[in-house]
Design brief:
By secondary structure, the protein is of the alpha/beta class. The chain has a single domain (11-251), classed as Metallo-beta-lactamase, Chain A (4-Layer Sandwich), CATH 3.60.15.10. It contains eleven helices and 13 strands. The protein has helices at 56-65, 83-86, 89-96, 106-113, 116-126, 130-134, 213-225, 242-265, 270-287, 292-301, 304-318; strands spanning 11-14, 17-21, 32-37, 45-48, 73-77, 101-105, 145-148, 155-159, 162-168, 177-181, 185-189, 230-233, 237-239. Helix 8 (242-265) crosses helix 11. The longest helix is centred in the last third of the chain and has 24 residues, at 242-265. Bound molecules: zinc ion (ZN). Zinc ion is lined by residues 80, 82, 85, 172-173, 190.
Length: 326
């Protein structure tokens, strides 16, 4: 494993995959983008995820620190189009290599060609903090975009000598895919929870508006059956025990969903539910010996307010019968 020399490393290399740290909002180890060199090792590379639009400069520096020229960008593979995963795509391509291709699920494709609706709805959520948090999202030319289906058994394609399988993995987002490379690395985006690198505790990734726990579980099964040797989580880094990790993700998702259902049925207001979830979550991390710094990171990668909103919507939309009518 090699790291860059500064006190805050911009990248880590794990067996041929470079984990680039976007250092979003000054937090290290929360949002990654991944650089995979071409099979021919000719300097060209693939990015899996682009990182947020607000972190383009950091990503460019991380690419260079890892020993690559941003102009050698060959393709960007997106697990889904949420701004922390896909925001910088258009900017990186327009600046460095307009010929680079983008791979994304077919349901996300139109938003990459015209991000205006995606950006408008994000602006309604983040309001005046929008630009600072996420920056700009530039459009991609339709001719540069490959729309994936990722259906039954995965969809194979080749990029820079790598054979890659895209698996359709909804549950977090209806347009989510996960990418299995031929070296056994599965890039899971937000389809397999989140955890701070090195921590044993797994956190749910359950923000609105698409959360569907049944689909999430099916996607975990799809990924189990793909038998990856390791995972790369966008939030954050390498996981070497995939099967155990998948079990923990499913358990954590259902534990949080149940907590929120019970609180809703007890008549608690949103703020009280958020506080409750926060307490339970912190206690679990503390019991595992998680450092204060990593507890803060966990709060960033798995935000309590978003989780409560996402799960509340899940119960109301998919299981209104489980809610005690008020
Ligand atoms: Zn997401």
């Amino acid at each position: 494993m090699t790291t860059s020399s500064q006190s805050t490393p911009t990248f880590l290399e794990h067996n041929g995959v470079f984990v680039l740290d976007t250092q979003h909002m000054g937090f290290t180890g929360t949002i990654a983008t991944f650089l995979v060199p071409s099979k021919a090792n000719d300097g060209r590379f693939i990015l899996v995820e682009s990182g947020p639009g607000s972190t383009v400069k950091t990503i460019e520096k991380a690419i260079q620190d890892a020993g690559f020229d941003p102009k050698a960008l060959g393709a960007i593979l997106l697990t889904h189009i949420h701004l922390d995963h896909a925001g910088a795509t258009g900017n990186l391509i327009q600046t460095h290599n307009p010929d680079a291709h983008v791979y994304v699920h077919e349901r996300g494709a139109k938003h990459m060609i015209d991000p205006s609706r995606l950006m408008d709805s994000a602006r309604r959520i983040y309001k005046e903090k929008m630009d600072m948090l996420w920056g700009e999202m530039l459009p991609i030319e339709a001719s540069k975009l490959t729309a994936l289906e990722g259906g039954e058994g995965g969809e194979s394609f080749e990029v820079l000598g790598h054979t890659i399988k895209a698996y359709y993995t909804p549950g977090h987002a209806s347009h989510h895919v996960s990418f299995l490379f031929d070296d056994g690395t599965l890039f899971t985006g937000d389809s397999a929870g989140a955890k701070v690198n090195g921590s044993a505790v797994v956190r749910p990734t359950l923000p609105p508006p698409d959360i569907n726990l049944e689909l999430y579980d099916q996607s975990l099964d799809t990924m189990r059956q793909s038998q990856p040797d390791r995972l790369m989580l966008t939030h954050y880094g390498q996981v070497l025990n995939p099967q155990e990790h998948f079990d923990k993700v499913s358990a954590a998702n259902h534990q949080w969903a149940q907590l929120i259902l019970d609180d809703l049925n007890a008549g608690l207001e949103d703020e009280a539910i958020i506080n409750h979830l926060h307490e339970v979550s912190i206690a679990e991390l503390a019991a595992d010996g998680t450092s204060q710094e990593d507890i803060v990171r966990h709060g960033v990668i798995s935000n309590d307010t978003m989780s409560v909103a996402g799960l509340k919507r899940y119960w109301e939309k998919h299981h209104p019968e489980a809610l005690v009518s008020s």
